[in-house]
């Protein structure tokens, strides 16, 4: 009986908070746009520098190519077991400086890493798919609704992606990215992707569609860098994506309500990206094997 009463009180609290949650999330759209501050941008760039320094060290060592290979034996075994069951292994990362996380005034930095395994897929097939940006809107829908290669020179790309995200609010973003691929050997490769322009779209798909000024919008996404690793092994290919992104901070007084929701969005986005990659690659490798 006591347990039932406790659950009832929690449910009542959630129901009572729902209108406030919707209002809080709608606030960036209805109120004055949030402006990307130089302090937030400086903090993000510092996070990127430290992340890339660590990534360079990991790649230079020649061991521990995948994230879980740097973990304890127990955690490593559990991660590989989940991957073989078709799951996405994902973890939040934190960069510490002198034992403290990087402070980001007027913004939030989100840092996640995720891994998938695609049985039967080769490294060549994997790279061919992820570099096929003209068809990313097919592979990654509904999160990507438009995609196009703007420039391509060897292993370097400049691409356009329109992101669509719905979680209480619907947010549409036009983004441009520079992507650089680095083949290492017959079974290893990695890439780095940097957002160069992120603009929030107002009234998408309507005659009065327009873009809000860069850095003066709802603050749903201001920057995103992704660091990919590809490893052909164990009869398939492992795909790892590490994501570092910058968004607006939580409105004062609403941290208790929004912290969990805000942190869940980057996790869900990365999970969906990796799941879509696995599904598209599985279809491609199956079709190739059937020829």
Quick summary of this structure?
This protein is 39% helix and 35% strand. The chain is an alpha+beta fold and 291 residues long. Residues 10-31 and 254-258 have low confidence and may be disordered.
| Beta strand count | 13
Strand content is: 25-35%
Outline type: globular
Per DSSP, the total helix count is 6
Report the mean per-residue pLDDT as an integer.
86
Structure class: alpha+beta
Question: Between the first and last Cα atoms, what is the distance in angstroms?
Answer: 62 Å
H/E element sequence: HEHHEEEEHHEEEEEEEEH
Question: What brief labels describe this structure?
Answer:
9-stranded antiparallel sheet; 13 strands; about 40% helix
Description:
With 291 residues, this protein is α+β, with helices and mostly antiparallel strands. It has 6 helices and 13 strands. The strands form 3 sheets. Strands 2, 5, 6, 7, 8, 9, 10, 12 and 13 form a 9-stranded antiparallel sheet that branches. α4 packs across α6. It is globular, with a radius of gyration of 20 Å.
């Amino acid at each position: 009986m006591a347990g039932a009463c406790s659950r009832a009180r929690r449910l009542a609290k959630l129901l009572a908070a729902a209108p406030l949650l919707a209002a809080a999330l709608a606030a960036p759209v209805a109120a004055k746009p949030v402006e990307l501050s130089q302090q937030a941008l400086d903090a993000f760039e510092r996070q990127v520098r430290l992340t890339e320094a660590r990534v360079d060290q990991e790649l230079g060592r020649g061991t521990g190519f995948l994230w879980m290979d740097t973990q304890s034996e127990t955690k490593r075994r559990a991660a590989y077991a989940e991957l073989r069951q078709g799951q996405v292994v994902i973890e939040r990362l934190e960069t510490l400086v002198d034992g403290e996380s990087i402070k980001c005034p007027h913004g939030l930095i989100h840092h996640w890493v995720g891994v998938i395994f695609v049985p039967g897929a080769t490294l060549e097939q994997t790279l061919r798919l992820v570099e096929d940006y003209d068809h990313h809107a097919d592979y990654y829908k509904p999160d990507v609704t438009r995609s196009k290669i703007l420039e391509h020179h060897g292993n370097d790309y400049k691409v356009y992606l329109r992101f669509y995200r719905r979680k209480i609010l619907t947010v549409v973003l036009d983004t441009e990215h520079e992507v650089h691929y680095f083949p290492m050997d017959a079974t290893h490769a990695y890439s780095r992707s940097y957002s160069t322009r992120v603009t929030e779209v107002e009234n998408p798909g309507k005659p009065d569609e327009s873009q809000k000024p860069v850095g003066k919008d709802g603050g749903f996404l201001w920057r995103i860098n992704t660091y990919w690793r590809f490893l052909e092994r164990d009869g398939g290919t492992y795909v790892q994506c590490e994501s570092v992104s910058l968004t607006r901070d939580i409105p004062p007084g609403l941290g208790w309500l929004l912290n969990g929701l805000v942190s869940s969005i980057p996790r869900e986005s990365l999970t969906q990206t990796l799941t879509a990659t696995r599904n598209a690659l599985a279809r491609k490798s199956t079709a190739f094997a059937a020829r």
